[in-house]
Amino acid sequence: MRCFVVLAAAISALIAGSATGWAFPVPEISKPWPTEHQQELRTLASQSLPYAMRYMD
Predict the structure, then answer these.
(1) Is the pLDDT confidence value at 48 over 60?
(2) CB 42 within 8 A of CB 34
(3) Could you tell me the CA-to-CA distances from 33 to 25, 37, 45 in Å, in that order?
(4) For the CA atoms of 35, 37, 43, 44, what is the dihedral angle to 10 degrees?
(5) What is the pLDDT, as a whole number, of residue 36?
(6) Which pLDDT score is estimated for 39?
(7) Residue 5 vs residues 2, 11, 18, 29: alpha-carbon distances, Å
(8) CA-CA distance, 34 to 42, in Å (whole number)?
(9) pLDDT score for 47
């Protein structure tokens, strides 16, 4: 009976200890390179727009 309790505690400790590793996704190594269109969209999205100098703009 004690062996079962010790084994159950060890298994639950291993599961709880590895739970923090599951919080972060694994990077995709076989992910394809972005196309030219996707790269252009990223650069356009990252550029900040100039703010309006007047209310009419």
Answers:
(1) yes
(2) yes
(3) 19, 11, 18
(4) -160
(5) 94
(6) 92
(7) 5, 10, 20, 41
(8) 10
(9) 81
What tens digit of pLDDT does each residue of 8-47 get?
988 888 877 766 666 677 777 888 888 999 999 998 888 8
Q: What are the Cα distances from residue 13, in Å, to 4, 10, 18, 23, 24?
A: 14, 5, 9, 17, 19
pLDDT of residue 14: 80
Q: What value does the CA radius of gyration of the chain take, rounded to a whole number of Å?
A: 26
For residues 34 and 31, give the distance between their C-alpha atoms in angstroms, rounded to a whole number: 9
SS3 string, 1-49, reads CHHHHHHHHHHHHHHHHCCHHHHCCCCCCCCCCCCHHHHHHHHHHHCCC
